[in-house]
Automatic annotation (TrEMBL):
Transmembrane feature ranges: 86-103, 110-127
Pfam families: MAPEG (PF01124)
Main location: membrane
Annotated organism of origin: Pseudomonas spirodelae
Record's protein name: MAPEG family protein
Length: 128
């Protein structure tokens, strides 16, 4: 299995870092919230809300990244090392995205989001 494929696996679980953060800062690990955890997450504010928003964005972008990695592998037009580096850069940038989101650094967060999209596009372009 390639490094890029392992990055897909990591990306699939990154949203849960945000979920755990949102729940941790809001007391959401209490058994009383286990019956309807989404209701808790929908009503958060501040850091908890930003962490939940980072989770939602992660769930939105991960399918595109996963598809890009798979398509890049199938197309076979790029060196595997390059695909691996692009995939690792995506995972690293998603971690930065999470940090910037919870820190409320909106401009940096938005810039990193554009980097995320650029990396996904790059996976397609280098494999064309």
């Amino acid at each position: 299995m390639t490094v890029a494929y392992w990055c897909v696996l990591i990306a699939l679980f990154l949203p849960y870092l945000s979920t755990a953060t949102a729940k941790a800062v809001s007391g959401g690990f209490s058994p009383r919230y286990n019956h309807d955890p989404r209701a808790l997450l929908d009503n958060l504010s501040g850091l908890g809300r930003r962490a939940n928003n980072a989770q939602l964005n992660s769930f939105e972008i991960t399918p595109a990244f996963s598809a890009a990695v798979i398509i890049a592998h199938l197309a076979g037009g790029a060196e595997q090392t390059l695909l691996d580096k692009l995939a690792m850069a995506f995972v690293a940038s998603r971690i930065l995205y999470f940090i910037f989101y919870v820190a409320d650094w909106a401009t940096l967060r938005s810039l990193v989001w554009f980097v995320n999209i650029g990396l996904i596009i790059s996976l397609f372009v280098v494999s064309a």
